[in-house]
TrEMBL record:
Name of this chain's protein: Crotonobetainyl-CoA:carnitine CoA-transferase CaiB-like acyl-CoA transferase
Originating species: Paraburkholderia unamae
SUPFAM superfamilies (alphabetical): CoA-transferase family III (CaiB/BaiF)
PANTHER family: SUCCINATE--HYDROXYMETHYLGLUTARATE COA-TRANSFERASE
Comp. bias intervals (Basic and acidic residues): 44-56
Length: 407
């Protein structure tokens, strides 16, 4: 475990994907992450996704969406609408280094739990707000989910099949990319703010992250192409506007993805597929020329690759050092020997599910390897533990809070 992170305590007041994703990363790295949830209902993702099954194959109360984002945390239920619940959160924040929240802008201020109020409670607190449109601006009060930010950022406009082809039109990415991108930015920003607190200022600060900003930031290289050319990146399916050949090709039994990144690789590629003359063709000598004459080049390559199976071309291209790969489904991805070697599918014991499979954290530390210390918590599983150990409440005080439905 990372000893520095083990001394870090995070109050995770977020729900759904972006904030919980950031909180889970801190938990993976060794921080004590306390997840605050609504009594009875809990995080919205407790009611989204597929029911995880136990050892007998029976569905449990736990969902795939929740367990994917919340391992390593302790769960406490608190009713934020009650003054007593707000007081509990302030007391918890006083003992934390980081607070993560993804309420709509201004919502927590109504409960006296916004940054300015929390700064009075704990000046060292790094308070990270993640919202759809940010804390300021004409859209700041609007709600939103991942597809909205994929569409508004320009991502969907350049994703999908080209115009004039079957299925043409904007497409969204197949997972909640805006949420997770915002979560990654939140992790980096929070670590930077903690470093500044501990080495420069001695005080925390407020971090304002918007999913729309994060998604635009993540596609900055494509926006830079537009800045340079004034030309909207077209939808090109699996191919690239600036590199060629760089796309999927249909083989006799499936598709193979080929990514030829430079002129040297193109010469090797042409030799490998038995078309060395293409490398000497004036239309295809350089990458810009190949991109400009994409239609002619792709037609020639596609005709060559179509008669043989995927495995034939992968073996041949790999032998020549050409980046390539099959288009895997999840069963194929997780049985891939490289993925197996990297232990990206792991299991852990869960009180309701039993032996629970999960996707491992991809970070490999040489000195402080990631340790999976806690399963995703049951709703309110650690409420009494946290109230007693952190806030010093006795059993009678905890019982009174339960009687009032504060926790």
């Amino acid at each position: 475990m990372n000893e520095l992170m083990s001394r870090l305590r995070v109050l995770d007041m977020s729900r759904v994907f972006s904030g919980p994703w950031a909180g889970q990363m801190f938990a993976d790295f060794g921080a004590d992450v306390i997840k605050v949830e609504r009594p009875v209902h809990g995080d919205d993702t407790r009611h989204q996704g597929f029911r995880m099954r136990d050892a007998e194959g029976e569905p449990t109360s736990e969902t795939s969406s929740f367990v994917a984002m919340n391992r390593g945390k302790r769960s406490i239920t608190v009713d934020l609408a009650q003054p007593a619940g707000q007081a509990l959160v302030r007391k918890l924040a006083a003992q934390c280094d980081v607070l993560i929240e993804n309420f709509k802008a201004g919502d927590l201020e109504r409960y006296g739990l916004g940054y300015e109020a929390m700064r009075e409670v704990n000046p060292r607190l790094v308070y990270c707000s993640i919202s759809g449109f940010g804390q300021t601006g004409p859209y700041s009060s609007r709600p939103g989910y991942d597809p909205i930010f994929q569409s508004m950022s320009g991502l969907m406009a350049m994703t999908g099949a080209p115009d004039g082809t079957p299925g043409a039109g904007p497409q969204k990415v197949g997972y909640a990319v805006s949420d997770l991108t915002a979560g990654f930015y939140a992790i980096a920003a929070t670590l930077a703010a903690l470093h500044h607190r501990d080495t420069v200022s001695g005080t925390g600060q407020h971090i304002d992250i918007a999913l729309l900003d994060a998604q635009i930031g993540a596609i900055s290289h494509m926006a830079q192409n537009w800045f340079a050319s004034g030309r909207q990146p077209p939808r090109l399916g699996t191919s690239s506007e600036i590199t060629c050949p760089y796309q999927a090709f249909t083989c006799s039994d499936g598709d193979v993805m080929v990514a030829v990144g430079n002129d040297g690789q193109f010469r090797k590629f042409c030799a490998a597929i038995g078309l060395p003359e293409l490398a000497a063709d004036a239309r295809f000598l350089t990458n810009p020329l190949r991109a400009a004459h994409r239609a002619e080049l792709i037609a020639l390559i596609a005709a060559r690759l179509a008669p043989q199976p995927v495995r034939h071309w992968i073996d041949l291209l790999e032998a020549h050092g050409i980046p390539c790969g099959p288009i895997n489904d999840f069963a194929q991805a997780f049985s891939n020997p490289q993925v197996v070697h990297r232990e990206m599918r792991r299991t852990m014991a869960h009180p309701a599910i039993g032996e629970m499979p999960f996707v491992a954290n991809p970070v490999k530390f040489s000195g402080t390897p990631v340790q999976y210390r806690r399963a995703p918590p049951l709703l309110g599983e650690h409420t009494d533990e946290i109230l007693e150990a952190l806030l010093g409440l006795d059993e009678h005080e905890i019982a009174a809070l339960r009687e009032a439905r504060t926790v």
